[in-house]
């Protein structure tokens, strides 16, 4: 029987082998990612051309001669038609060549590789803390709905949503650093410890621990804990609120009543049955929260002088450094695409029905 006859008879059969199904799904995924990244590159190109910033003036200053201006204008390819400039832009982007950053004089990719580990380290500590507190608070808030615990969690979540990070950062520095001296100040580590260890990975906590430099590790931890807690507070508020909503919906289902009638304890019913059914949704929320933290906690990094991605992007915007801005924008897009792909893979781990 041919495929046409199967369709006519209304029968649904999987004629492709598992290997072919896998390659077909992988091809669709690659095409989807390629289209997304192409759209992002195209968008950043035209935005960079529409902004009222002269890259030559930003690079050389406004005191250059007309002759120097014209030479640089041709060197950058700005005398070419827009479609030719777009083709050159796509070619350079495919080779991860975003030009030189005006603020540092180094290649943009080299700058990003230098500052991004600091943001990854800060975001990872923050998301671990936010997830460790946010998920249990959301679950227990749904378990004991309209109780004192539930109202407290909702108030904390509202406070986490509405309080500006820059205000929390300033208050934390005034109270815990300037007054109580409980935490380290701005930056990633005190100057006296900067050369006490070798930076191999770019992650100070990991490098100091691997090399047994525990005093430097303690100092680096004292610097990261407060900005991480501030970022974790916002993530915890979001994760707990969303987890609570997912759990309330599940706890109203009939299978929960059936489990209780059969004598299953309330905690076991909640954690063993209801939470398993919302695990996929919770994973998505955590992944998105992590993506937003990696995008660059601009205000927090600025307040704490954290030499990360967000601070680098802010300085590039203030200086009109479009090479750095475009490179950072593309990286943000790639991060969101990658984290969404990881979320899709985790779907298959937690929910066999999606395999």
How would you sum up this structure, described in words?
It is a multi-pass membrane protein. Residues 116-347 form the ABC transmembrane type-1 domain. InterPro entries: BPD_transp_1_N, MetI-like, MetI-like_sf. With 355 residues, the protein is mainly α. It has two domains: 33-95, no CATH class; 108-354, MetI-like fold, CATH 1.10.3720. Helix content is 74%, strand content 0%. The chain is built from 15 helices and no strands. The longest helix is centred in the middle third of the chain and has 38 residues, at 214-251. It is globular and about 85 Å long. Residues 5-14 have low confidence and may be disordered.
Outline: globular
Count of DSSP H/I helices? 15
Give the name of the CATH superfamily of the largest domain.
MetI-like
Q: What's the order of the H and E elements?
A: HHHHHHHHHHHHHHH
By DSSP, the count of extended strands is 0
CATH architecture of the largest domain: Orthogonal Bundle
Give the proportion of residues in helices.
over 70%
Mean residue pLDDT: 82
Summarize the structure.
Its main location: membrane. The protein has 355 residues and is mainly α.
Helix and strand topology:
Blueprint: H1 3-8, H2 18-50, H3 55-60, H4 66-75, H5 82-94, H6 108-143, H7 148-162, H8 165-179, H9 204-210, H10 214-251, H11 254-261, H12 266-296, H13 298-303, H14 309-319, H15 322-350
């Amino acid at each position: 029987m041919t495929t046409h006859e199967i369709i006519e008879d209304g029968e649904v059969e999987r004629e492709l082998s598992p290997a072919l199904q896998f390659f077909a799904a992988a091809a669709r995924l690659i095409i989807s990612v390629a289209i997304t990244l192409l759209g992002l590159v195209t968008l950043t190109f035209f935005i960079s051309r529409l902004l009222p910033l002269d890259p030559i003036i930003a690079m050389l200053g406004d005191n250059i001669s007309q002759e120097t201006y014209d030479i640089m204008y041709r060197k950058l390819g700005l005398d070419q038609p827009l479609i030719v400039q777009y083709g050159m832009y796509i070619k350079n982007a495919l080779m991860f060549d975003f030009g030189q950053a005006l603020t540092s004089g180094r290649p943009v990719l080299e700058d990003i590789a230098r500052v991004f580990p600091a943001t990854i380290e800060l975001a990872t500590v923050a998301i671990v803390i936010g997830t460790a507190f946010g998920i249990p608070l959301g679950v227990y808030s749904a378990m004991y709905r309209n109780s004192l615990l539930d109202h407290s969690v909702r108030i904390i979540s509202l406070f986490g949503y509405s309080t500006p990070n820059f205000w929390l950062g300033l208050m934390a520095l005034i109270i815990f650093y300037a007054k109580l001296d409980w935490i380290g100040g701005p930056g990633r580590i005190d100057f006296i410890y900067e050369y006490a260890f070798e930076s191999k990975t770019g992650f100070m906590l990991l490098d100091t621990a691997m090399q047994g430099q525990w005093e430097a590790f303690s100092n680096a931890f004292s610097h990261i804990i407060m900005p991480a807690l501030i970022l974790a507070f916002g993530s915890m508020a979001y994760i707990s609120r969303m987890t609570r909503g997912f759990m309330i919906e599940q706890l109203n289902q009939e299978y929960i009543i059936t489990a209780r009638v059969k004598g299953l304890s309330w905690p076991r019913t909640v954690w063993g049955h209801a939470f398993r059914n919302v695990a996929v949704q919770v994973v998505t929320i955590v992944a998105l929260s992590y993506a937003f933290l990696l995008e660059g906690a601009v205000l927090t990094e600025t307040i704490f002088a954290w030499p990360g991605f967000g601070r680098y992007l802010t300085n590039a915007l203030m200086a009109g450094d479009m090479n750095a801005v475009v490179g950072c924008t593309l990286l943000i897009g790639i991060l969101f695409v990658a984290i969404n792909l990881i979320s899709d893979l985790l779907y298959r781990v937690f929910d066999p029905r999606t395999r």
